[in-house]
Amino acid sequence: MHASDVQGPIFDGTKDFILDLNPDMLILSGPPIYLLGFALSKEDIDNAKRNLIELTQEIPKVVVDHHLLRDLRCFDFIESVQNETKNEVLVASEVIGEKPNLLEAHRKEFYLEN
User: Fold this and answer.
1) For the whole model, what pTM was predicted?
2) CB 10 within 8 A of CB 46
3) Distances (CA, A) of 24 to 50, 58, 98
4) Which of 16, 36, 25, 44 is nearest to 90 (CA)?
5) Helix 42-58 vs helix 74-82: angle between axes, to the nearest 10 degrees?
6) What is the tens place of the pLDDT at every residue in 42-97?
7) Among the four 9, 24, 80, 92, which has the fewest Cβ within 10 Å?
8) What are the residue boundaries of the structural domains of the chain, listed by start?
9) Which SS3 state, helix, strand or coil, does residue 62 take?
10) Helix, strand or coil for residue 29?
């Protein structure tokens, strides 16, 4: 299942919808943790994490990408989810055996170089 832009998912209804469809693999955008304090509250991020943990406990392979990888803290977030499940939690590049290259997370640095 591909569930782009569900942002975590932050909302329980989205998580429940995904679980009802019982996918064996899920690709979704993780929560946009870079928006904490601006467009999202700590409660939103906590909900997303809780829901993502529940999804990873039920779905054998979960690929988290897009919004989450716009922040260099993404791997801490992924690790905290991974610690709560026996199933695979990956980022998209890892599916094809490549290391993540977080271009968006490094955007400010790129602008400073030019």
Assistant:
1) 0.89
2) no
3) 19, 9, 22
4) 25
5) 50
6) 999 999 999 999 999 999 999 999 889 888 899 999 999 999 999 999 999 999 99
7) 24
8) 2-113
9) strand
10) strand
